[in-house]
Structures are given as C-alpha cells and as structure tokens.
Amino acid sequence: MRVVKIISFIIIIPLLFDFVSSVKLGISPAQVDFEGYAGESLCKKINLISETNELVAGIDRWSNEKTFIKEINRYTLNSSNLDIEFNYPKEILIENKSEINLCVKGKEAGTFYGAIIYKTNKSVAVGSWIVLNLTKNENYSEDKLAANDKKAPSQKPAESKKNIILFSFLSSNSILMLILLYLLIKLWTILKKKRTI
C-alpha cells in the first residue's frame, strides 16, 4: 500500500506542472528580396510571431556563392565581409507579433545572398533568406544617395501568412518526464522481484 502511495505521488506531482512546454516561433516572409542601386539604402519589414512573449537575438549570415543556395551551412560570412551594411534589431522582445525593419546598403553592384536568423535562449530559431540585387547607375550621384538614406521608404509588410515557419521544441519538462518514466520502470522492476522472492 505504501508503494502505491509513493508511485501515485511521483505521478501526480509532475502533472501539476506543465506536462509539455514548447516554444512556437515564426517569421514572415520566408524570403526578403531587396532591389536597388549600389550605395542606396533599401528597407523592408518582416514579422516575428510567437505564442508567448519571447526575447530573441538576431544574427545575419551571408554567402559568396554566385547562385542562390538554401543551405545555411554555406552562409559563413558577415555582411561587413561583402561591404554590406545590414541594420536590424539585434535583440527584440516579441509580444505575439512584432514587426521589424530591415535596412541594407551595399557599396558594390551585384547579387548577394544572405539570411537573417532569430533565436531564443531555448535553442528555437527561425530565419528568412535575403536576396540583395544591386545595380550600378551612373546618373545616381553620391549626394542623391545620401539624401535617400535619410528618407528610406518603408515597404508594406508581407500580407500572406503562408510563409510562416513554426518550430516547436520540447523543453526540459519533457526530459524530466522521461527520467520519471525511467525511475518508475526501475521501481516497478524492483517491486516485481521482491514479490517473486
């Protein structure tokens, strides 16, 4: 009888806490395309979505590939390696849905591929691919570029939620439940051996 009470206590206590705790984090759109002139500041908005208030940290990675390849392990450069200024919030508290501004400015004409990644302290991460297509315009003077930097137009946020990527990871509560299950099996095995003796 005493053993049944102990087992019941061991099972009920974890159930009083959240059985599974997960973090759902999304980003929209899945790809952001910038197109403009070398030296021009270009801005667009993206949305970060979370079911709970989450503090996330942002990083950007860039590739020197000539074609667009969606393999994040090939994105090993920083924006500064490619003479690109990429401005975005490095840390942000998401409260359900947060709209953030991305601004990019490249010195050289060409097509550049990058990714912006936001992650929580619980190892949950989401990202958007970045395609930056810059052309050289001889008629575009440095003075005009400086004036445009001051009044960089903001773009409408993506209306489609189709590209929202949700990642869900189990937290340490699930690990504790697995340990509990293991201990219960061990206890049951010991009790079974005592009854057979």
In CATH, the architecture is: Sandwich
Which CATH first-tier class would you pick?
Mainly Beta
Q: What oligomeric arrangement do these chains adopt?
A: single chain
Tell me the distance between the termini: 18 Å
CATH topology: Immunoglobulin-like
Class derived from helix and strand content = alpha+beta
Report the helical percentage: 10-25%
- Work out the strand percent: 35-45%
The CATH superfamily is known as: Immunoglobulins
Largest sheet: 5 strands, antiparallel
Radius of gyration: 25 Å
Coarse shape? elongated
Q: Give the rounded overall mean pLDDT.
A: 76
What order do the helices and strands follow?
Answer: HEEEEEEEEEHEH
Number of domains: 1
**Total DSSP helices:** 3
User: Strand order of the main beta sheet, please?
Assistant: 5-7-3-1-10
- The total beta strand count reads 10
Poorly predicted segments: 15-21, 152-172
